[in-house]
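So, can you check this one?
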Amino acid sequence: MINIFLFSHSFLDMAFVLGYCAKYDKQRNITILVSGSRENMSFLEEYFPYRANIRFLDFKTKNPNLKLGKIEFIFALFQEKFLLQKLKKEILFDKMNELIFSSLDNDPQAHYLVNNVAKKNNVFFADILNFRHEPISYLPVTMTLIKNILQINLYRIVFGNHYVISGSSKFPLMSLRTKFNFPKLSVNQYLNGNHKIKLIAEKNYILVAHNKLINRSFEYEKDYYQKILGILTSLGFTILVKTHPQYYYPEYLNKFKIVKLNKNIPMELIDLVNCQSIIGVSGATMLINQKVAMISILNIIYSVESEDYDYQYFQLKQNKEIIFPSSYKELKFILSRITKQ
C-alpha cells in the first residue's frame, strides 16, 4: 500500500485534507504533517474520523507565543532542520512514497522538505487558493522589507536556497523557490461538502468573525464589537460569533445574546447554507469560497492611507465580492436590506 505524507499548513487546507483522507482512507497509508498551529492539531484530534496518522511538527520558531532571543531562534532552526532531515529519510526510504503540500508562502520548513523530497520521490501541489504572489520589486525600500531580507538569508544559511521574497516591498512574503514543476492535484474533486459542520436551524443568522484588531487597543476593540453586535441585535438577527483559533472570547461579548462557536473549527468547514452574511475585518475568513455576503469593516476602523489598512487590504483584494461600508450607518443600511431579502 502506497504511503502518502500530506502537509496541513493551516486551517485553509483542512477541507482538502479531510476530503483527500475520505477518498483514500482505505487505499493508502496517510500521514498528516501538521505544520500549522496547535489549534490545527486540536481540531484534528477532536473531529478527524479517519485512520490516518497525525503528526504535529512542533516548530518553536513558528510559535508566536514563544519570545525567542536571537541565539535561541537560530538554535531552534537547526533543531527543526534535524527533525526535517529525519522526516526526509523516512519519506525517501521507499521510492513509492509521495508528499503533498498546499502552500507556497510562509512555511519555510515545509518548503525545505518539499525541495529535498522532490529530488527522488513524487511531490504534488494542491492549489487551495488558486492565487500566486509574484516576486517583488525591491522598491520602495522599507524597514519591513529589510527585516524580511535579513530573515530570508538566515533561513537560507540554515536550510539552503529554497526561498524567494514575493508580494510587495511593503508586505513581503517568504515563498518557495524551486526548480521543480510539481504536478497539481485537482482540489475541487476532494471538496464534496461531506465534512461540513452544521450550526443551527435558523435561516436568518449573521456570523461575526471575531479577532484581535491590528494596532488597536483593547478598549477600541471592545467598542467596535459592541457597536457591531448592537446593530445586529437591533435588526433582529440571530448572532453567531467565532473568534480566531489563537485568540479568545472576551467578557464584553457576554452582554449580548449570541452563540459562541468552537474556535478550533475551521471557517471553511462550517455549513453556511442558512447564513445571511459574514462580518469581519480581514484574514482568511473573508476569502472562503461560499455563496455568502462578505462584509469587511476595514474602512470603518482604519484610514485608507494607513499602512495597517494597506496590509489587510492587500489580502482582501483577492475576493472581489467583499462589501466595504465606510460607516456604521452604511453598515446598518446594508444589513437592513439583507433582512428584507
